[in-house]
Design a protein that fits this description.
CATH architecture of the largest domain: Sandwich
Oligomer: single chain
Strand order of the largest sheet: 7-13-12-9
CATH class of the largest domain: Mainly Beta
Order of helices and strands: EEEEEEEEHEEEEEEEEEEEEEEEEEEE
Structural class: mainly beta
Number of domains: 4
Radius of gyration: 30 Å
Distance between the termini: 69 Å
Shape: elongated
Largest sheet: 4 strands, mixed
Number of strands: 27
């Protein structure tokens, strides 16, 4: 560090280094994971600059920092930075102790029993035998993990939930000589949480009913069925199919949209208002684990045509609560319309976080929410309109 460094001075810039590491890319976010004196340093996210919060104390010669640089959603690097004050005139120069850095990645299923050992003797795993003390210094804010200060065993102290967080990055300090803190070795344990099929798909309504008038052609839209599954990973992705194969209806396996397979022809004489054709199908929603639920679709076809009433929203204002950890595809709530069974919904002012299903009126999450984003991810307004 420069001898002129004082409060507010930039003592290091992370973005100057990684051009040789990440093919010239600049990090989109930089954060301070650990500092031997946390009060002394801070990091500016946009530039990656490490600044002094206050003047350097005279009784410390060297400091170690662990800085996280994130480049893409799936690409990040931890830099271990060692900073030393210059030796005063007439004082012999002391070599700067170099801190090591190791990385370990493990996979665990969600909801593993409390006390499950994830890494045994971390020091030996990362090639640092004989560690004197182990401490988790970053990444354990929720206190889901713990490490034995003596043995280096990393274990769970609470259940991990895939729907809440899919991975954790624990920065662990290993002191080989507690009397010389600048020689600590750092290990980053990345815990990837695997999804477990915890929840069954559930249809919010058991029967979807619709009435149409006059002959219907093949491919006409009937309705959209949508089951809910509280699993957030691959087990939350549902596929739809008829319970019994039929040519009367076609079910889209991804969206749950139900359309007519065969045309419906009204054969009775004109003026016979009692002519009614009723068709039905049972639709099954199935998750990746084989768990299913089913709902009935009932279509009534009547002769003639009617002038539809003017549709209107059932409420002036809809308010839905949504967790800040909600992921893409999560159903927030549903809008309802009176006066029409065939209203189509659309968003008047697009939102990057929410949209509305055109046929069902369900409000869904477009992209994963993060409470650490801007306030827009926590409160968003949709201006919706309908067609018929």
């Amino acid at each position: 560090m420069s001898p002129e460094a004082q409060s507010g001075s930039v003592v290091y810039n992370v973005s100057d280094w990684p051009s040789d590491v990440i093919s010239g890319s600049k990090p989109r976010d930089v954060s301070l994971l650990y500092a031997s004196d946390r009060k002394l340093f801070n990091v500016t996210s946009e530039s990656g600059s490490v600044r002094l919060n206050q003047d350097l104390p005279r009784d410390h010669a060297a400091y170690s920092l662990a800085v996280l640089a994130e480049y893409q959603p799936n690409l990040s690097v931890v830099f271990l930075v060692c900073l030393r004050k210059p030796a005063e005139a007439g004082t012999p120069s002391v070599p700067l102790p170099t801190s090591g850095y190791r990385a370990v990645t493990i996979q665990i299923p969600e909801n593993v029993p409390i006390g499950t050992v994830l890494v045994q003797d971390l020091g030996s795993v990362v090639g640092v035998p004989g560690g004197r003390r182990y401490d988790i210094v970053s990444g354990n804010d929720a206190r889901l993990f713990e490490i034995s200060h003596v043995t280096g065993n990393v274990s769970t102290r609470a259940e991990v939930d895939y729907e809440r967080c899919r991975f954790y990055r624990l920065v662990i300090r290993i002191d080989t000589d507690v009397s010389v803190p600048e020689t600590a070795v750092f290990a980053v344990v990345v815990v990837n949480v695997d999804d477990v099929n915890e929840y069954r798909p559930v249809f919010p309504v058991p029967v979807y009913r619709r009435t149409v008038f006059g002959p219907q052609t093949s491919g006409c839209f009937v309705t959209a069925v949508r089951a809910l599954d509280r699993d957030a990973g691959r087990f939350g992705v549902l596929r739809y199919r008829p319970q019994v194969p039929t040519s009367s209806f076609v079910v889209d396996r991804n969206s749950g949209h139900v359309r007519l397979g065969n045309p419906v022809v009204m054969t009775s004489r004109p003026g016979d208002d009692d002519d009614v054709i009723r068709l039905g199908i049972t639709v099954v929603a199935e998750d990746a684990g084989g768990w299913t639920d089913q709902a009935r679709v009932e279509l009534t076809v009547r002769r003639g045509s009617t002038s539809p009433e003017v549709p209107s929203f059932a409420e002036d204002t809809y308010q839905f609560d949504v967790e800040g950890s909600a992921t893409s595809g999560h159903v927030v709530g549903r809008l309802t319309v009176t006066g029409s069974e065939s209203a189509l919904f659309s968003v008047q002012s697009p939102s990057q976080y929410f949209s509305v299903d055109r046929h069902t009126g369900r409000v869904v999450v477009l992209r994963d929410l993060r409470l650490s984003y801007s306030a827009e991810s926590q409160v968003a307004y949709l201006f919706l309109c309908y067609q018929f």
